[in-house]
């Protein structure tokens, strides 16, 4: 099953409430995915150059010690079992250095993204990460009912395989093993056996080859075999696409202030002025995007 | 009587409507704050009128018998699925599988219905004032699917004896579904359905689609179409 949610703010007046709005959306989708949950929040006004989000099993003191020998200046922000490294050093320099530190797993990185995921009921997960305190321009969330791989943090969504990119997915893919092998040859790294991570890698690979997000998702309709509703986030916005059979649900609510997308209307029932929103279903095989 | 879903539990509201006191004359209900709830007004058995003020979730008014349910908003998957009789009127848009396997009664959707509208319908009348999504009336057995707007791909795929009337464009027809002659008797029958439901439209402007009846029995020549 799984629940997916996303919100993109057109009006800055809601920026400070972004986390709170997404919290409500994820809580309402807990019934669709009680195994694990995760979210990505985009905030371009952060006063740091890069964020690198890690799932850690060592203490932040130990991590601080290990990092000091590798990176000149950085700050650490610890939330639950995640640590965000805030640094001006470029990710292409930092990420290879992190590989030698045991007890950490990369969750995502970029200039405006912060990404968190954890095993457990979504209602508990959003509380542990204090999602309601986050502000930003857009955010994406996922509640998981596991089908394709184990219930672990790296089996949870969102998947991030490129700078400021992330993907959440409701559905399942049938050609992910073949596609994973091809993408590994193209230099994309995978951390799990999960099908969605392959779709995220497919998108990153295509964006790396200078294709637009819209073209990427359109060619994905041909290359990704299975059933899905995807929400893919980028630095500037997000896009939604459903496979051509469209048995996985999605509903969009658009007002002058925001665009919200969710697996069910229930997820958006608490959003401001939602009863005045233009509410519709994304058509099968059509890419919808905002801000990107 | 007002029933507010922020004050009353969904199961309690459904139970109350499903077990109305037969002697009671209270037969008009307004449900407030549905907040996208699933299976709201499912399994109603008695003559009554229910107005839902807002958007609802899946399977709204499923298995309906005798009741008249109006939704002042959008509905999720499977509105009025397996309806037996009565009416369900959606003032907004409907998600996929609207009126699925409906045996009787009338489903009216003022907006659009998405994919698989009227899938496996068995006698229900479905009237969509907007357009329908792909694979609508898939394996539809009997009843009428009336579309005032357009229809997306594979309309009437593997259809049996249901009748499809569409005023707008049909993107493509599914296997074994063909356009049929709109005879005088069809115009009269369709006009009667439109008039009965107070829909202002001219039946002679519709085209009719139905089964070519080539896939009823297995034939090796048709293997590619199954």
What's the helical proportion of residues of chain A? 10-25%
Regions with little confidence, pLDDT below 50 for 5+ residues of chain A: none
* Portion in strands of chain A: 25-35%
Q: What is the C-alpha radius of gyration of chain B, as a whole number of Å?
A: 18 Å
Helix-residue proportion of chain B: under 10%
In words, what does this structure look like?
The complex is a heterodimer of chains A (292) and B (226). Helices cover 24% and strands 31% of the residues of chain A. By secondary structure, chain A is α+β, with helices and mostly antiparallel strands. Chain A folds into 2 domains: 3-46 and 120-290, Glutamine Phosphoribosylpyrophosphate, subunit 1, domain 1, CATH 3.60.20; 47-111, Alpha-Beta Plaits (2-Layer Sandwich), CATH 3.30.70.3100. In chain A, the strands form 3 sheets. A 7-stranded antiparallel beta sheet of chain A has the order 7-2-8-1-13-12-14, covered by helices on one side. A 4-stranded antiparallel beta sheet of chain A has the order 4-5-3-6, with no helix packed on it. In chain A, helix 5 packs parallel to helix 6 (195-208). In chain A, 49% of the residues are buried. By secondary structure, chain B is mainly beta. Chain B folds into 2 domains: 1-81, no CATH class; 112-226, no CATH class. Chain B is 10% helix and 23% strand. Chain B has an 11-stranded mixed beta sheet, with helices on one face. In chain B, strand 1, helix 1 and strand 2 form a beta-alpha-beta unit. The mean pLDDT of chain B is 96. The chains are: A alpha+beta (292), B mainly beta (226).
């Amino acid at each position: 099953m799984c629940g997916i949610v996303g919100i993109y703010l057109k009006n800055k007046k809601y920026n400070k409430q972004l986390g709170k709005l997404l919290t409500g959306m994820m809580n309402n989708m807990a019934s669709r995915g009680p195994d694990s949950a995760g979210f990505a929040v985009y905030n371009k006004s952060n006063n740091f150059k890069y964020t690198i989000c890690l799932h850690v099993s060592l203490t932040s003191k130990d991590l601080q010690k290990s990092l000091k020998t590798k990176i000149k200046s950085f700050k650490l922000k610890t939330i639950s079992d995640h640590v965000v490294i805030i640094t001006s050093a470029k990710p292409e320099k930092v990420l290879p250095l992190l590989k030698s530190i045991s007890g950490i797993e990369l969750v995502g990185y970029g200039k405006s993204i912060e990404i968190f995921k954890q095993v457990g009921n979504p209602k508990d997960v959003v509380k542990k990460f204090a999602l309601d305190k986050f502000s930003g321009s857009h955010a994406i969330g996922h509640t998981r009912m596991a089908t394709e791989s184990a219930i672990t943090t790296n089996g949870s969504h969102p998947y991030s395989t490129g700078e400021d990119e992330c993907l959440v997915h409701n559905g399942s893919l049938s050609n992910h093993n073949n596609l994973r092998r091809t993408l590994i040859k193209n230099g994309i790294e995978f951390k799990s056996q999960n099908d969605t991570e392959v779709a995220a890698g497919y998108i990153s690979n295509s964006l790396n080859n200078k294709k637009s997000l819209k073209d990427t998702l359109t060619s994905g309709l041909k290359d990704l075999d299975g059933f899905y509703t995807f929400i893919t986030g980028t630095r500037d916005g997000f896009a939604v696409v459903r496979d051509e059979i469209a048995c996985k649900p999605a509903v969009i609510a658009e007002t002058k202030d925001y665009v919200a997308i969710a697996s069910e209307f229930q997820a958006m029932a608490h959003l401001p002025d939602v009863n005045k929103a233009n509410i519709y279903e994304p058509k099968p095989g059509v890419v919808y995007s905002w801000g990107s | 009587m007002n029933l507010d879903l922020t004050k009353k539990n969904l199961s309690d509201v459904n139970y109350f409507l499903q077990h109305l006191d037969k002697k009671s004359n209270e037969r008009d209900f307004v449900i407030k704050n549905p907040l996208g709830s699933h299976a709201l007004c499912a399994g109603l058995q008695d003559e009554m009128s229910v107005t839902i003020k807002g958007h609802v979730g899946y399977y709204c008014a499923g298995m309906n018998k005798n009741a008249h349910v109006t939704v002042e908003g959008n509905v999720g998957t499977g509105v009025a699925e397996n309806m037996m009789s009565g009416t369900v009127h959606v003032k907004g848009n409907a998600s996929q599988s609207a009126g699925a396997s409906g045996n009787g009664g009338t489903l009216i959707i003022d907006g659009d219905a998405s994919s698989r509208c009227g899938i496996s319908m068995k006698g229900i009348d479905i009237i969509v004032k907007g357009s329908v999504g792909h694979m609508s009336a898939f394996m539809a057995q009997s009843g009428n699917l009336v579309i005032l707007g357009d229809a997306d791909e594979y309309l009437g795929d593997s259809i049996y004896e249901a009748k499809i009337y569409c005023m707008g464009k049909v993107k493509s027809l599914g296997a074994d579904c063909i356009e049929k002659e709109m005879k005088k008797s069809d115009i009269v029958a369709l006009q009667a359905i439109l008039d009965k439901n107070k829909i202002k439209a001219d039946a002679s402007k519709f085209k009719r689609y139905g089964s070519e009846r080539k896939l009823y029995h297995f034939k090796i020549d048709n293997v590619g179409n199954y």
